[in-house]
Amino acid sequence: MDEIRVLVVDDQQLVRNGLKATLSPATGVRVIGECVNGVDAIRSVRALSPDIVLMDLNMPVMGGLEATRRITEQFESVQVVVLSLYDRDQDVFEALRVGASGYILKDMPADDVIDAIKTVARGDAMLSPPVTRRLIAEFARRPMLSETTPLELARLTDRELDMLRLIVRGYRNEDIARLLVVGESTVKSHVQHLYQKLGVRDRVQVVIYAYEHGLVQPRTPEFAPIARAGR
Predict the structure, then answer these.
(1) 75 and 108 fall within a common domain
(2) Can you give the residue range of the structural domain that contains 151?
(3) Which of 18, 28, 50, 90 lies most in the core, judged by the most C-beta atoms within 10 Å?
(4) In this predicted model, what pLDDT tens digit does every residue of 199-221 receive, in sequence order?
(5) Secondary structure of residue 8 in the 3-state scheme
């Protein structure tokens, strides 16, 4: 991707101006539009085809959560990064569930915001450290949904299970390629097959899936054994 096209969505003009000023000098990033609410954002995504939408949550007419859900359902190639003042549990978890590929805070340094955009554009997910800690803490409090192996997992190949384990532990494609001694294009192919079989959109949703099905223990890096049919 030569240039990352970004749509900024926030109901406050001051915030939009600040984000444009932050992103304009960044190499390989271009702001192609700005919106004041979720309805405007959906129209602009359809008209402008951005790569990344920087989405505020609390806006009039249509908030960021509903806009994120509709955008990720209707526009497969568009990634949404929530940029919020708050890291409230309910907002974080719901944003990730409706398809956001990242959740970062507005008080992050400008370089970190730019890095988050580039990270998500590469196909990875981005959560600020406080958000990551909250996500893990939340799943640590929850009981395992089921002790049975979900049908989707039974369909995964051994290599796809390797990808799942490493994604949950935070490894990026280049790291996985190095660890497994394979090409990065091979990793990308396996990861895409993994997404399709699990019915998820990106790495964040893979992690949520793994925690919800008890495949990882939130307080340790260990990955729970997966029962395979016929083994």
Answers:
(1) yes
(2) 143-231
(3) 50
(4) 887 777 787 787 777 676 554 44
(5) strand
